[in-house]
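Internal ticket #5521
Category: modeling
Description: The requester needs a full-assembly model to guide mutagenesis choices. All entity lines are attached below as received. Residue total reported by intake: 1085.
Assigned to: D.W.
Attached entities:
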Amino acid sequence: MRPRSAVWLALGWVGFALLPWFAGSGTQPAIAPPSPGPAGSALIDGLTSGRWWLLPLALPLLLALAVTALPGLRARQPVVLLASGAFGLAWVAAQGFAIGLNGWAWTWLGALFGPLPLGQGGFGAGAALTALSFLFLMTNGFAGLGFMKGDRFTAGAIGLVLAAIAAFVFLPVGYVLSGAGDTGTGGFSAAALGARLAAPDIWRLSCLTEAKSCGVVWNSVFLAVLTGIATTLLGLAFALVAVRTGFRAKKLLRVLTVLPIITPPFVISLAVILLFGRNGTVTLAMSDWFGLPVSRWIYGLPGVLLTQTLAFTPISFLVMIGVVQGIGPSLEEAAQTLRASRWVTFRTVTWPLMRPGVANAFLISFIESLADFGNPLILGGNFEVLSTKIYFAVVGAQNDPGRAAALGIILLCLCLGAFWVQRQWLGKKSYATVGGKGDNGIPSQLPRGVKIAAYATALPWAAFTFVLYGLILFGGFTENWGRNNSLTLRHYIAAFDLSWGPGGLIWSGRAWGSLFTTIEVAALSAPLTAAVGLLTAYLLVRQSFKGRGAFEFLTMLSFAIPGTVIGISYILAFNQPPIELTGTVTILIICFVFRNMPVSIRAGVAAMSQIDRSLDECSLTLGAGSVQTIRRVILPLLRPAIVASLVYSFVRAITSISAVIFLVSPKYELATAYIVGRVEQGDFGLAIAYSSALIVLMSVVIALIQFAVGERRIGRRTATPVTLQEKPV
Amino acid sequence: MSIASKPAGVEFRNVSRLYGNTAAVNDVSFTIEAGTLVTLLGPSGCGKTTTLRMIAGLEMASSGTILIGGKDVTRLPATDRNVTMVFQSYALFPHMTVADNVAYGLVVSGVRKRDAAAKAAEGLELVGLGGYGQRLPSELSGGQQQRVAVARALVLEPEVLLFDEPLSNLDAKLRRKMRDDIRELQQKLGLTSVYVTHDQEEALAVSDRIIVMNKSVIAQSGTPDELYRRPKNRFVADFIGGANLIDGELVGRGGGTATVALGRLTLSVPDPGLPAGEVLLAIRPNAIRLRTGETGGDGIPVTVRKATYLGSHMEYGLTSEFGDLFVVDPNVASPVPAGASALATFTGDGIAAVAR
């Protein structure tokens, strides 16, 4: 234990005594800012500037130093490390939250001790390193006491993942809860919370009785139910066609499933506008041929429903493919040998077995629709849903974070409720019929009626989807869609122009800035996401410890939190000390890591469950430690899952919009946020050109990675379908 | 350079392993002498594998002390113990060649690559797989994979070599050969080995000593001969070799033997050290002989319920006043047909008395 504890202890001292404790470039200047460099460290600042509350941190560091350096005390090392680490961590957090920019952050402390003459800014490098050091001293202490089989690495990893989730998922969500009860003067009151949660424009049912719009909750739920039904039926039809018929172009159907990963969620909306908007092709044709008046009917429930159904049908398709393939053909063959006709077999065996999967697909689409932000933003018109309402409560003229937080709570409860139902109720009801080799057989063909219905639903819809994507790729080359269809490169030049200046190449196009930021953020967050996700998967699959079930639930929970709620919660939580991150590139990276982590966990868990546990145990008995075992045995076997996680996190970081639209700043603009901004300005040409460029770019990236890693490896474990199901919006 | 051995003894002192409130291993103590092969034998769920994994350091004892070579290793994780293990599933790393698999333990403990490769080759030679180094594990047969697993565990020159049901994935014929090979290697190198199995015949065949476990505790430990001839309790008598369990009465003792009354018969058995009174007689199936055409004498009258011809011997199911009896009789030349009445006599050897 000694060498490793000593390293963390030394780093703790570095963080405490040498590195600047506070962040230099916070968004708000602290009163009496600390000096830069070592002089701004907790030790020196505490001694010279009067921030005395930083000094008690020396106590746990000294204690840990004593038990590590003095041989006489070594027997007590684990207990002391545990205690000093826990105390240090608690003190860092407590003083950080209790003392804000202007002295006491909690008013009752001021009443107790009198006012503080000076406050403090957000945590900087020193604070982060010291806190990390305390965390690992604590987990080393735990391991030394014999927990986690005495494995320091496991103890440290669990501590790290838990601390990260607490800081970047639960702390922000906690801020949302308290933000909704904000009284306007910094206090919290249940009355304010109740009033915000019960606001009439959220819950009213006036659309039933008079010609007024209903509460935003009912809008959201109604839309989600409709989308859920539509996508489930379409997904089922696609799955039946793909698995149970002799359909030739199955590969083409598979392409459909890749589209939602590489497409920013609102792009479908743009395509729908190109068809059915006021200048849309179909609208104009109808008006020319039949004299139908040009209207804005697409803006509202019909448009959002149409686009969401288009966007989420592939996800439902993937879920349903798994369900349909999971029904062992031998069961149907058994039914047929018992003299059931094809139709009776389908009705009495196939359909009952599929039912839980169908419900699952419905719930997934339900959650997706609730959480969807881009499509309602662009096509919603007067039809308000929760996610857009949250956005406008923050960025609009209202600027009422309390109201946004209250709406966030409601949206969160709806999503978590559906997520809970999905896990609890369906988790127990699924009929796993995918067994061993015995289940092989030829899937029976569908009865004629079902087959015709499936074809009639799936094929036109697939054609429609491909037409829309074609329009997106083509639309960027027209002067002004609908009004002036002459071909031009104007939009591409505006976005991606290059010119030679005196200083060499100038990236003069308007899109370059956001594109480079996007790629940079995506490239930084992808490996982090994969690392955190796979580490968590390793802990879940390979280590047994108390509270493992709760640990798993917590990590998966962050997936059910809608992007808009994450966005609003990050603004509320990280806009002030102790963790002050808004306006930085760090907050974007952290946001992506914790948004995409659950998918990485899933991929890792799926792949790791296939690796026999005795392999790692064997490696341990052969003298390799946990770290060496992971590096030499587990990682090489996990390569497909790693690649899948990397690709997924990279691509998702480029295409997601809902959370980051709250977090971008003029300095760090992301591609999706930029495109939505263009759409809101009515600049469709550039938006479409930029979107198609993104789609092409990501297709190329995926193709390159597939080529580099080898088709076989990715294909064999089919990691992509697993990841696809979990598409945060 | 050659593969030597550094055998060390293993000692458990009052070791328990709890999962929640249930004990997988409950207050177990034993000593394993250096250089011997000791088998942990018992039905599934008896705690034998947990015991083995505690020696390896893959499970941590909830209480008690574990010593290897006289050193307390109770809190030492698997990585830091000089103990290797041959897994039931072999656990060969599928992404490494056979040679890399065998060299793995050496490489991770910092041995130079060339030395590790040389020693790995030597290890493979030892198990008769010289020249197979560049293959992948998936290209080997089950028995060959088993040998690779043994070689991999051997080259680290462990203080204790553990076997977790190493033969359960092999077919019956190969199993017999592998168990002889393992025993031969163990004796040649003078290794301390702990071997887990649920197959009592396998245990009798390979062990210096056997520790029989049942319901998380040690039922009895001793040499194969002791366990077979002088079982201490009903479980061991039944589990090792199988036995007909009949109520009897201990009526006297002297000179290391005891006299037991069974109905009107008196039989002499090794002295079980029990007080006079009710005991249970464990009668081996091959300690009963059938006689036809006689009545009276020193036997009990029985009816043959079932007679099965098995080539090398006959198996009989009998009905008697003491309950059903199971008999193995090498006499296949003149079998007793089902339904016949006969007299069952007892040979002197193969009967033991245990507590009721």
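Resolution: model delivered.
Comment from assignee: The longest strand of chain B covers residues 22-32.
Ticket closed.
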